[in-house]
Amino acid sequence: MLEAIGVESVPPRDARSEAELRARALRGDDCEVQILEPAPPAVSEPPWFADAEPEGGRIVRPYGPLEWQWQTLAAEDATLQAWCEERWLGPYRRLGALPLQFSTTREALHVLAERVISPARERANTKIGLRWTLGGFGTPFFAGDAQVRVEHGELIAQEGADARRGAITTLAEARALLGPIATPSSDGENEASLVVDGNAATALADLYGFATSILEELRHDATEELEPSRVQLWPEHFDVSVELGGEAAGKRAGYGVSPGDEAHPEPYLYVAPWSAVPPGKRWRATGFAGAELDYTQLVDAPDQRAVALEFFRGCLGDLVG
Fold it and tell me: Is residue 253 within 8 Å of 271, Cβ to Cβ?
């Protein structure tokens, strides 16, 4: 059963430490960094988020003062540019046309996320939220620097210095790869086939990276009155989202990016108010009460990030005034 599994002996991917080394070489040893992917140590106490919010003024981050943006550092160091692009820190790649196998791959990875990956984290600390990770998606680190992630269409189970990786074929194979951090299966589900194309899995990873970078910028710009949540990938709907707006005032909504669903064959951006939907043409989504921007509009835009941020900020303005 485990013929496709390879075992490596490597330390957990410490994205924060690598980012600090690169940033401090250009901005000094006293600067801090903000990245988008989870980093160890394991999350072991509330509020259970993947990455601490840095404090202070000398922070290299994807947004904020120009001198302290990753894309400014990348312009100063050619070797840093590709590293930042891959991690959606700026400068940014463009999203492109979807591979033919995108829908079937999305559906398979959705099943894997909901039934295997998220439950591994939930078993350790009762939390189900996932994150964009380099080349895919997965959990924050948990339970002694364990992490479960999908990377370019492969499943990886990291426990300390041991990283087990294998092809995604069935839920049974996935649980076998996770070993002791897996949750028990439900009757009859283990043999369900999971058809995953590597190119489509990478396209999904790029969508999640784009979504995370956009929504983190939206969250960063939000005032305290908007009570911003953290950006997470939710396994139930397989979307990346953030919540903004005062709930007591009836202005809270989810702002997110979905890879597609039964009513949407392609990805889309959405805003879903928790209460009444405002009037106007913007608020006529398909399949839910809210607003949406379809993938074609996004991909065809000369500046994809500007269009996405304009959509979200426009909806935010409608809701909170």
Answer: yes
The Cα–Cα gap between 138 and 128 comes to: 11
How far is 40 from 46, CA to CA, in rounded Å?
Answer: 15
- What number of other Cβ atoms are within 10 A of residue 208's Cβ? 25
Separation of first and last alpha carbons in the chain? 57
Q: Peptide bond preceding 91: is omega within 30 degrees of 0, i.e. cis?
A: yes
Question: Which amino acid, one-letter code, is at 7?
Answer: V
How do strand 6-9 and strand 162-167 relate by DSSP bridges? antiparallel
Question: What is the torsional sign of CA 283, 316, 52, 57?
Answer: positive
Helix (H), strand (E) at residue 300: helix 295-300
| Residue 23, SS3 per DSSP | helix
Angle between helices 171-178 and 102-112 (to 10 degrees): 50
**Measured on CA atoms in the order 18, 155, 103, 111, is the torsion positive or negative?**
negative
- Digit-coded pLDDT (tens) for 187-197: 666 667 899 99
Q: Which run of H or E residues covers position 121?
A: helix 118-125
C-beta atoms surrounding 188 within 10 Å: 7
Q: What share of the chain is helix, strand, coil (3-state, %, to 5)?
A: 35, 20, 40
Residue 27, amino acid: R
Where on the phi/psi map is residue 238: left (φ > 0), alpha (ψ -120 to 50), or beta? Answer: left
> Helix count (H) and strand count (E) of the chain?
9, 13
DSSP assignments along 249-282, one per residue: TT--EEEEEE--BTTBSS-EEEEEESSPPPSSGG
Q: Tell me the per-residue pLDDT of 137-184, one tens digit each, with 9 for 90 and over.
A: 999 999 888 999 999 999 999 988 788 889 999 999 999 999 999 998
Prediction pTM value: 0.95
The candidate with the shortest Cα–Cα distance to 312, out of 288, 294, 296, 292, is 292
In this structure, which amino acid lies at residue 306? A
Report the alpha-carbon distance of residue 313 to residue 300 in Å, rounded. 20
